Amino acid sequence: MAYKKTAAAALVSLSLLASACGNAGTGSNAEDANANKAAAGNKASTVSNEQVTLKFYSYNLAIASQIPGTEKLIKEFEEANPNIKIDAIPVPSTDINAKVQADIVAGSAPDVAQLTFDGLDFAVNNFNAKPLEDIVPADELQSNFEGFSPNGMKLGQLNGKTYGLPFTFSTPVLFYNAKLFEEAGLDPAAPPATWEQVKEYGLKIAEKTGETGTHVGGATGGDWIIQAIIGSNGGQALSDDRKTIKFGEPEAVEAVQMWQDLIKSGANSKLNDGEAIEAFSQGKVGMLLFTSALQSSFVTASEAGGWELKTAKMPAFGDKPTTPVNSGSALFILTDDKAKQQAAWEFLKFATSERGYTIITSEIGYLPLRPAIVDDPNYLKGWVEANPLVKPNLEQLDALQPWVSYPGANWKQIETILNDSVSKAIVSDGDVVSIMQDAQTRAQALIQ
Amino acid sequence: MEKVGRNAGFYTAATIKHAALIALALVAVFPIYWMIVTSLKPESEVFTSSFIPLHLTFENYANAWNAIPMGRMLGNSMVVAVIQTVMQLLTSILAAYAFTRWEFRGSSLIYGLIALTWLVPFQVIMIPNYVAISDFGWRDHLAGLIVPNIASAFAVLQLYNAFKSYPKTLIEAARLDGASDWGVLWRTIMPNLKSSIASIGILLFITSWNDYFWPLLVTTKLENTTVQKGLQMFISSDGNMWGALMAATTIASLPVLLIYLLLQRQIIDSFVKGGLK
């Protein structure tokens, strides 16, 4: 009997402890509940000076090195808009779609979310993202985006409406190691401009220095670099009417064949992307095509390792125009509440303003979509002079192409099929034509 | 002569066995060694392959500690893992006792159902669980992390097998001596199955300590979440902060290591017994 009592008491006290510990957290759930009620009651209300709190999911806040810059952006916005409070919640980029989806089901969706561009179609059709055209009067929208990169506006558009404003994004740039170039008898001032030269230089570096010649990243973990390479050869991943998968067409196949040839010839490493990033950081890879967001960590590594880091634009297929595709994310307004939508628009406006992009570029490590601020001493002029490596990246913005999102609920599977098929094709001797056509057939079947 | 030869053979065999075990132990320990060494290297040395830090620094620990609310996260992880483990052990001990001690109608059906829930992937029940937790108002609360996990099918199955192997005659003898069911469970069975329970306990603790996805869904603020979510913050597609990551990982693995050291005797006992069966 005594044991029975003790055990029962232990059970009770443990569950009490559990709930007590739970309550020790912030009271944000109660706030959520109140906010939701307010949201329901406020639907018809218009803009006012009432206090508005925006629940904002951001993946930059889930990356330790990017927290200070992102917090600064939010703080400056709150200071300029005392009636708007940002309740910023960190969610890692790989899990942010699952989290938003779960929260929509649970009735606690974020008001503003930072989502990657490959999920644009899904965000519009399943997360009920709101187009800016429905929230902001046309003339205000137009005047706000004066000076904005025209290509940049297209990144977050679908069916002619703007759902996402480009927030933190990057482009594929060619990083190269000037020291290895010199050792291989190459001129560091003349980086390769075409894929043919990449192969030639890569072979030379491998032969003369014994290190890895080059590495083209992006075969795994999202298809934006694949889209950029296919596009540069005149191909497409998806047709313009968004109905037909095209990565099995001859232009796309040819682009992947070039990639396979780079590896087969020995110019390109057989490392995976993570290994290649580390090997490049150690000064053991001649050239690396990858996201420009890696720049600051490469600068640190090159200074520590005693070699010079240089950057160049993405290489071309002969004289065809290159089509750098952006990676990264846009800000989406998900709330149905009118007052919150207006507050969210204010936040989006600030984040993509001259000042916003200045913080994003210089303190978080991404790119500005207002070209003029690069030469403006009030904004980025001084920073760009101190960080000249960013220049090829800025030049690429003129040719920037949107990261195409696949339609329907299977978008991620289609992207994975492309990633997997390209990975399979480039590291094997396999027939690229049949691999890519098979991938196209399988992906097409997933489009509803 | 014959004896010497056999001795020599015995020693050679033992040497080979030990050499193989030492080599395997090194393979097992090396990643931990590399983690600690990397955590003590300055940023400029992280990418070098030196086996010892040339310039010893604790900078990474300071960085990791300051970049995220590490203390709070460790505390949360500890509270969640300890309560969850104790609750899971309690519920599974009671269930295992019921299944072994009493024969009641539908017992094998219930046991089968419990076994089946073990096979259901977390992703399937994730959203319904999350909606339920939200309805209780437990989002961003540690209760939301603990309560859905107070019973573990894995622990029930494991303990049921351990209980089943316990001689029934001893239980019956205790009953004849007038012991109640509680008496039999806590005074007769428990002391004899301590090592099995301890080894299952540490497995449950590690599972709970390492859980990432459920805390990711349930908690939003960094102050209310567990340390695994914090570790993720040093990893990103735009470059990993290796030094800080290794420092944070070293800190995060200390509690598990400590608990293992405390329960080492029991765990080895249980593995030895399990191996003899």
Q: What can you see in these coordinates?
A:
The complex is a heterodimer of chains A (448) and B (277). With 448 residues, chain A is an alpha/beta fold. Chain A has 2 domains: 50-169 and 327-399, 3-Layer(aba) Sandwich (D-Maltodextrin-Binding Protein, domain 2); 172-325 and 407-445, D-Maltodextrin-Binding Protein, domain 2 (3-Layer(aba) Sandwich), CATH 3.40.190. Chain A is built from 20 helices and 11 strands. In chain A, the strands form 3 sheets. In chain A, strands 2-1-3-11-6 form a 5-stranded mixed β-sheet, with helices on both faces. A 4-stranded mixed β-sheet of chain A has the order 8-9-7-10. In chain A, strands 4-5 form a two-stranded antiparallel ribbon. Chain B is an all-alpha fold. Chain B has a domain at 69-232: Orthogonal Bundle (MetI-like fold). Chain B is 75% helix and 0% strand. Chain B starts with a helix and ends with a helix. Chains A and B meet through helix 1, helix 2, helix 4, helix 13 and helix 14 of A and helix 3, helix 5, helix 6, helix 9 and helix 11 of B. Chain B: This is Carbohydrate ABC transporter permease. Chain B: Residues 74-263 form the ABC transmembrane type-1 domain. Chain B: It is found in: Cell membrane. Chain B: Belongs to the binding-protein-dependent transport system permease family. Chain B: The chain crosses the membrane at residues 20-37, 78-97, 109-130, 142-163, 184-206, 241-263.
List the helices and strands and how they pair.
The complex is a heterodimer of chains A (about 450) and B (about 280).
Chain A: H1 2-23, H2 28-41, E1 52-58, H3 67-80, E2 84-90, H4 96-105, E3 112-116, H5 120-126, H6 132-135, H7 138-144, H8 150-154, E4 157-158, E5 161-162, E6 164-166, E7 172-177, H9 178-183, H10 195-209, E8 212-216, H11 224-232, H12 250-265, H13 273-281, E9 285-291, H14 295-305, E10 309-312, E11 329-333, H15 338-351, H16 354-364, H17 381-386, H18 391-396, H19 411-427, H20 432-445
Parallel strand pairs in A: 1-2, 1-3, 8-9
Antiparallel strand pairs in A: 3-11, 4-5, 6-11, 7-9, 7-10
Chain B: H1 2-39, H2 59-67, H3 70-101, H4 107-119, H5 122-135, H6 142-146, H7 153-164, H8 168-176, H9 181-192, H10 194-210, H11 213-218, H12 227-232, H13 242-276
GO biological process, one term (chain A): transmembrane transport
Family (chain A): Belongs to the bacterial solute-binding protein 1 family.
Protein name (chain A): ABC transporter substrate-binding protein
